[in-house]
Structure formats: C-alpha cells, structure tokens
Design goal:
Bound molecules: adenosine monophosphate, glycine
Radius of gyration: 21 Å
Number of domains: 4
Largest sheet: 5 strands, parallel
Strand order of the largest sheet: 3-2-1-4-5
Length: 425
C-alpha cells in the first residue's frame, strides 16, 4: 500500500514510525513532515492549491489511504472531498468534526444528550459575557468557540483576568473569528485523562489510556501548551473507570451523533476530568492527541494500518488490538520561551547517541535540516519516549535519555508521570 500522512508534528512522526513497520506498506508520503519524518517517508510541501491539489497528488501516485493528523483539515472537510473523489481517507467528516471545531456545539450536544460535563453558558456578545462574570462567583473557564491551536482556554481565578480574556478574545480578536463567540464554564477540580477511541460509526475500539501534561512548568504551573509530556497506561482511567467512561460518555456520544444524522468515523478523543470517581468531558477532539499518540502507539503491538482501514471501511468489529504491557512515557523538549515567543534554528545535538538504545524512541516535531544539521524550527521541538516494565522505571529511563540531547535554551518538565505514582504504591 501507499500511504499519505498529513501533518508534521510529533504525532505524525509517531504515525509514520508505526506505519513504516507495517508489512502492508511499501511507500509513505508525508505533507509536510519534518526532519525526523523525512528518514521514513517522502516529505512533500503543503500544496498551494489546497485539498484539490493534494487529491490530484493521491490520484496520480495511486495512494491507497490518507491519514489526517491535525484537526484543521478535518474541520475544513478534507474527508468529504477525498471521499467524493473515490479516495480512502481516515478521519472524521466535516459534519462530525464540528465536535472539535465548535465548543458551543460540543457543549450543547453534551447537554442535549445528558453526557456529564461542566455547567456552562455561551455568549456572542462581550457585554453579556462580562455582565455574567460580574454577577457570578469564580473561578471561570473562558473558552474560544472555534479552533485556537490549543491556546483558546483560560482558567481565570480573578474576575479581572476573566474580563480581560473576554475583551481580548471577543473584541481584540486574539484568535480571529474563533473567539467571536465564547463559552464560560464552571471550573472542575480533579485529575485529567485522555480517553481515545477508534470507531467506524458502529464499533468502538478504545485505545490504551493516557494522560497529557498541558501547563508548561512542573507542578502544572504556568500557561497551557500543546502538551509537555504524556504516559500510557494512565491508572486514573483504568479498571472500572474505563467501562464507566464507555457507558456514560463514549457510547452516548457516538449514538447521540447518529441520532442527529452524523455517522462518526475516525478518532474520538475525550479530554476528561475525573471528579470524585466520575468522568466529565472537558473537550472533544476528532483526531489523535499530540503528545498522547507517542506513548499510545509505542505500546501498540498490532499493525495500525488494518485498524485505520477498518474504521474507513466499516469492519472494525473484526479486529482487536494487542498492547505491550510496559509503561510508555514521553517527555517534550521545548524551545526557550515556548509557549510564548521563541527562537528557531538552534542546532540539536546528541540524537545519534539514542538511536541504538532499546525502547528509547525520539519523535521529532519542530525540526528541520539546515546545512546538514538537525535544527529547531518550532516550539515543541521533539519528544523522547521510553518504555519499561513499570512507570517509575520508564521515568528513570526517559530522563536519562533527555540528559543526552541538547540545544540552546532547551526546557522540559521534570515531573511527567508523577501523578500516576500514587496509584502504584
Ligand atoms: P480544553 O482545550 O477544553 O481541553 O482545555 C484545555 C485545558 O484547560 C484542559 O486540559 C484543562 O486542564 C483545562 N480545562 C478546560 N475546561 C476546564 C474546566 N471546566 N474545569 C477545569 N479545567 C478545565
Ligand atoms: N494533547 C492535547 C491535544 O492533542 O489536544
């Protein structure tokens, strides 16, 4: 088979790494890819002609399956366009992707179907949003309705921050049109987890559980990022909790969408808060998580390609994935200043020392080749993944590996996976 992967981050490097191990696959293209991906796939530039040109590329190269990494192309309807051209593509169609594309839709959908989530109000006028904040007690969670590259959520302990956030999202258009409407939610206290499933619209196949670390600094301090590290399995979602999440959240979501005329195919990712042993939906994504995909797919023993194909073709019920029992953990190495302003073009050293180590895998994100060297070209530069028998051993192993890679002003969290340790005692 020939496969095209769309995207160029750590998640896509992981997808390409896993797909490259499939005996079904003879050639991988990636658009746009990155330095790490270029070792496994032929990277192609993002075409100026958009989906139309990408479609022509797939027809011309006889690509058998396209796999979409990020949310934007899904929300923009790439799946509908490829499908109409007779091309196989893995992911959710435009109608289903609204679950991630609009927080207001997602919250109203959850409410319509009695699926547990934080209580909320939605606003399309800054004045009414401000009035609401002034008349209620905080903390408030203010969310831009549309896509904001993971930065559209602000947790506001102080009324002044809530009011400023409303102004910058709705009036100053910090996120463009994505923030013209907002949701203000109750702030939930608990432990987060990522519950990610594959579905063909009928069968639901849960993937291994995982937990992300969004704030930039240790102890969940500082602003949110795209994710600074993750591990799998995540004990907070294991055991009876996993069944509870399926029954109370995932199944009603897929069947609720079906009742509204939307057949959901692809990845459904529920970002959850576990409060007093009950799961609540914080957000839905319609794609693999980044960085959760790194620990999840490094634990997947089965070939990924037949599973993705089965989601497209509607025979997921014929498969059951096998998982490695080990713990997998990923630590992100970020550029100095990220998630704020950061510099690019720093030379990365030490990667070759990890290349031969067993169960240590480097997934690159913001990297490119310049004058023969791998240099930084993004905020989340790369992630180092380690697998070991237990999470504490995997933590030890990953941080030893992290020490061996360097670039100017590198920073990373030192507490990835710590929240799980209390369950393991
Ligand atoms: P989201 O993009 O909706 O997942 O939000 C980003 C992050 O904000 C989440 O991972 C949580 O850490 C936090 N968050 C979102 N909604 C809430 C909420 N209602 N209560 C507490 N924290 C939240
Ligand atoms: N890890 C967060 C996300 O993929 O949205």
């Amino acid at each position: 088979m020939k496969i095209l992967v769309i995207g160029g981050g750590g998640r896509e490097h992981t997808l390409v790494w896993k797909i490259a191990q499939s005996s079904l696959v003879e050639k991988i293209f990636c658009c746009p890819g990155n330095a790490g991906i270029s070792e496994l796939a032929e990277c192609i530039a993002v075409p100026a002609g958009g989906f139309q040109e990408l479609k022509d590329f797939c027809l011309q190269k006889t690509v058998d399956l396209t796999i979409v990494g990020p949310e934007q192309p899904l929300v923009d309807g790439i799946v509908d366009q490829f499908t109409a051209a007779g091309l196989k593509i893995f992911g959710s169609n435009k109608a289903a992707s609204i679950l991630e594309g609009s927080k207001i839709f997602a919250k109203q959908f959850l409410a319509r179907h009695n699926i547990p989530t934080a209580s909320f109000r939605s606003f399309s006028s800054a004045a009414s949003a401000a009035e609401y904040v002034k008349s209620t007690a905080g903390p408030w969670v203010v969310k831009a309705d549309g896509l904001a590259a993971g930065k559209g959520v602000v947790i506001c302990q102080e009324q002044s921050l809530a009011l400023d956030t409303i102004t910058s999202m709705m009036e100053q258009e910090q996120f463009g049109l994505a923030g013209k409407s907002i949701v203000i939610e109750e702030c939930l206290q608990g432990e987060e987890g990522s519950f990610i499933v594959l579905t063909d619209g009928e069968t639901i196949m849960p993937l291994a559980s995982s937990q992300d670390h969004k704030p930039v600094f240790d102890g969940d301090q500082g602003p949110n990022t795209g994710g600074m590290g993750a591990y799998s399995p995540a004990p907070v979602l294991e055991g009876p909790m996993s069944q509870k999440i399926m029954t109370k959240i995932i199944q009603p979501t897929i069947s609720g969408l079906a009742a509204e005329g939307i057949k959901f195919k692809g990845v459904l990712y529920a970002g959850l808060m576990i409060v007093d042993n009950e799961p609540f939906v914080l957000e839905f994504n319609v794609r693999f998580g980044d960085p959760e995909t790194q620990p999840i797919l490094t634990r997947l023993k089965s070939d990924l390609v037949p599973l993705l194909l089965a989601s497209v073709e509607g025979n997921l019920a014929d498969f059951s994935p096998e998982w490695r029992p080990e713990s997998s953990i990923l630590v992100v190495l970020a550029a100095g200043g990220y998630p704020g302003k950061y510099e690019k073009g720093k030379v990365i050293s030490g990667l070759e020392t990890l290349a031969t180590e067993k169960d240590i895998i480097v997934f690159q994100a913001g990297t490119k080749i310049s004058d023969g060297a791998t240099v930084t070209s993004g905020g989340r530069v790369l992630g180092i993944t380690a697998l070991a028998e237990t999470l504490p051993l995997a933590r030890e192993k990953v941080y030893q590996a992290v020490e061996k890679v360097h670039f100017d002003q590198v920073h990373y969290r030192t507490d990835i996976g710590m929240k799980a340790l209390k369950y393991l005692e």
